[in-house]
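Researcher: Structure prediction, please.
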Amino acid sequence: MLHFIQSLLRDLYMGRSVVRAGAPRCDGCRLPPRWCVCGAIAPVVAPCHVTLLMHRRELQRPSSTGTLILRSVAGAQCHLYHRDLGPGAEDPLPVSLPPGENVWLLHPQGEPVASVWRADTPRPLHVVLLDGSWSEAGEMLRAYEGRGRRVCLAPLEQSRYRLREQNVSAHMSTAEALLGILQALGAVEAEARFRLHFELHVYATLRARGKRQEAESYLQSSPLAAAIPDFLESLVARRPRTA
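Model: Predicted structure follows.
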């Protein structure tokens, strides 16, 4: 499935960028090659299985953090959501996911993770992230109610996701939702590494959009500068012109 999605993304964005912007996008990070961040940070090993239920419209959004999760979290799975599932259509949630408390559907309208997570929580734990706009996430949740236990995270004081506007504090990007899960599970190393992936995605995208001042302001309060200074220096270095 991941190879299929990468191929679909390549068809969507390579064609779009050549026609409208005159430059292709990287198959991995979906940024222009000038700002490619692939290989900058090692993959994340999460203490749970991560499944992404992605609305198909999200494939057309370069700012998506769902695709960030797929390329940076080892073993993460993605299933495309289709609004109308007719007879014989593929179920967007894998049938191998066991029912019960060890399957979590993350959504603001759920039980607090702190009241659900216990030392005796059934393992393995499967976390299903709904990837789409808030109306699309609500649609997906209604379609698959009962497939897992609905859980929520505490609202963010301030989102670090500067690529889309969040009008409600409880609303956060898909990547920030995963960060909240990793924190709740006590996965300190995995949370720290995935935070680097997330913040690099935001920083490089801002630079690719030409928002240099905003990107540099973002970097000042980010752990990126201390963690990968050499990569950041090479990323912003002026490149020689090609013929």
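Model: The radius of gyration is 18 Å.
Researcher: Thanks, that helps.
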